Structure formats: structure tokens, C-alpha cells
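Box 3.1 A note on notation
Throughout this textbook, protein chains are presented in two layers. The first layer is the amino acid sequence; the second is a C-alpha cell string describing backbone geometry. Keep the layers aligned when reading.
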Amino acid sequence: MHHMIFVTVSDIAVARKLATGILGNRLAACVNLVPGVESHYWWEGELCREAEVLMVLKTTGEKLAALEAFVLAEHPYDTPEFVALKIEAGSARYLDWLTTSVLSEG
């Protein structure tokens, strides 16, 4: 099983640092950084609006728990977003690459 994960961060520097650690530890095959996201949300009883960077990560079911642990440990937010969706279908070639990428040593 493969997963797509969404994580938001405060800025591109934080996103790049997390992406480097995630990829360096082979916890995901790919991390897309989408700057310019405007997030509206409730936090501690107040309605907030912030500019954020959306991280889109792709990984396997076997790496999902370790990826979540890494993000929660390294993310600067008190309660970081970590939402994982199962990839129900996709190009067999891409999904094979995804699997191989998280298993490879280089």
C-alpha cells in the first residue's frame, strides 16, 4: 500500500529542512513543496489566517509510522498537520519507483 501525506509548515526554509531529513532517511520517495498556501484554521479558540507551505509526501505503508514519528519530532509546530491518504490507484511504474526509492540505499 502507498500513501500520500499532507504536512503544512510556516515557511520554505522549514519545508526544505524537513524534506532533506525525510529523504535522507528514506522515509518518502518524493516531497513536493507548494509555497503560497493561505491557511485558515481554529487555534486555541481563535480564528487564524497564515501563509504556509504545503508539503506533499509519497511513501509506502511500511514507512508511514516512521515518517509520522520523524515529522512530529522535527516539526516546529506544537500540533503539526500529518494527514495520510491511501493511494488507491496509480501508474504501476510510478508506484514501483516509489517502493524502490524508500528501500534503496542509494
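The longest strand covers residues 46-60. The two ends are 22 Å apart (CA to CA).
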